Fold this sequence. Notes:
With 167 residues, this protein is of the alpha+beta class. The protein folds into two domains: 59 residues, no CATH class; 78 residues, Glutaredoxin (3-Layer(aba) Sandwich), CATH 3.40.30.10. It is built from seven helices and four strands. The protein has a four-stranded mixed sheet with strand order 2-1-3-4, with helices on one face. Strand 3 and strand 4 form a beta hairpin. The N terminus is likely disordered. The site of FE2/S2 (inorganic) cluster (FES) has 12 residues, from helix 5.
Amino acid sequence: MKDECQCGHSCLEANDPRFEELSKYIKSLGETTGIAMSVLQQAQHLFGYLPLEVLKFISKEIHVPVAELYGVATFYSQFNLTPKGKHQIGVCLGTACYVRGAQKVLDKLREQLKVEVGGTTADGRFTLDATRCLGCCGLAPVMMIDGEVYGKLEDVSVIPDILKKYE
Ligand code: FES
């Protein structure tokens, strides 16, 4: 299989087998009305995000305008229109974390990774996001990388070493 393009733009081949797989999934639903959410979820599962080519493909298959699909994809935060990095970083901005210095954690990560919140690093390694309470306020301030929690980050100088584990 071809390597994933790292240019940050969508470069899908028209004969990418995932289109065929998506088409089969749509047929398996047996109808074309009211299925946009399910199809978008399946498309994101297959492609990792929802580039324009995929929205156009779905539009043709289920007879829903691209603009409408785009509207759904941008409204729900579960959908990504751009590729996500290999590792997902979430910095908790809940109250407990915020009062204990979450902003400093976020600023350190932005500086270290040279990326804004919601963005992905140029090498495609990390996506940085701010999140709501992660449910471990006793460890505030907290960040999560790929589901692993790092707490008590008042001293942000430890952050570069944590990131190194993912390089
Ligand atoms: S406020 Fe950050 S874990 Fe609860």
